[in-house]
Q: What sequence folds into this?
C-alpha cells in the first residue's frame, strides 16, 4: 500500500494519558483492557453496570468495539475497584454499578456523593455537590426530651435543634451510601 505523499501531522498527544496516569498511580499495569474500561466509565453519564460496559467493548460493538470479552471486563472492573480507582454502588436491584472516583486537583479522592434512582425507568444519576443531612424533626423524640422551651426555640430557628453528626451516627450507625428515589425529569 502506498502512503499519501502529504506531510504527516505530528502525532497527536496520547488521548489516554489521563487514564494511563490513573492506572499507574494505583500501582497497576496499563493494559489495553484497563484503559478501555476506564475510558468508557469516564464517558458514562452516570454509574454503569458490567453489562453496559461489556456491551460497549464487545467485539463488533458500535464504534468498532474493542474485542474485549465480558469476563475480562468484569475482572478489570473488580481490579480497578480494589485499587480504589472505581467505586461500586448497588441501588436495590442487586446489580453492581461502577463509576470513576472523582479526584481533586491535588489527586485526593473526592467524598462520595449521593445517587438518585428513578423508580419508573431505573436510570441512576449522580448527585455531585449535594449533601444529604439527617436531622430529627423538631417535634420528634429528641426535641421532646429537650423540653417545651427547646421546641419553641426550634420552631423559631430549626438550626438550634440541628443534631450533631455524632447524634445520627449513634442512632443509625455509619452511612456508606445515600440513595434517593423518585421520578426522573423524563418520567415525571
Ligand atoms: Zn425515569
Ligand atoms: Zn455517582
A:
Amino acid at each position: 500500500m502506498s502512503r499519501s505523499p502529504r506531510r504527516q501531522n505530528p502525532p497527536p498527544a496520547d488521548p489516554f494519558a489521563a487514564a494511563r496516569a490513573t492506572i499507574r498511580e494505583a500501582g497497576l499495569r496499563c493494559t489495553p483492557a484497563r484503559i478501555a474500561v476506564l475510558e468508557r466509565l469516564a464517558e458514562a453519564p452516570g454509574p454503569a453496570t458490567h453489562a453496559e460496559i461489556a456491551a460497549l467493548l464487545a467485539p463488533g460493538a458500535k464504534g468498532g468495539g474493542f474485542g474485549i470479552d465480558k469476563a475480562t471486563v468484569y475482572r478489570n472492573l473488580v481490579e480497578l475497584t480494589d485499587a480504589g480507582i472505581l467505586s461500586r454502588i448497588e441501588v436495590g436491584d442487586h446489580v453492581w454499578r461502577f463509576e470513576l472516583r472523582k479526584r481533586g486537583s491535588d489527586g485526593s479522592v473526592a467524598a462520595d456523593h449521593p445517587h438518585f434512582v428513578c423508580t419508573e425507568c431505573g436510570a441512576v444519576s449522580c448527585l455531585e455537590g449535594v449533601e444529604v443531612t439527617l436531622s430529627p424533626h423538631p417535634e420528634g423524640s429528641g426535641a421532646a426530651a429537650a423540653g417545651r422551651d427547646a421546641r419553641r426555640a426550634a420552631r423559631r430557628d430549626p438550626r438550634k435543634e440541628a443534631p450533631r453528626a455524632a447524634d445520627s451516627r449513634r442512632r443509625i450507625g455509619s452511612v456508606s451510601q445515600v440513595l434517593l428515589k423518585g421520578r426522573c425529569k423524563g418520567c415525571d
About this structure: The pocket of zinc ion (ligand 1) is lined by residues 118, 120-121, 123, 183-184, 186-187 (CB under 6 Å). Helices lie at 17-25, 32-43, 50-57, 70-82, 141-146, 148-156, 165-172.
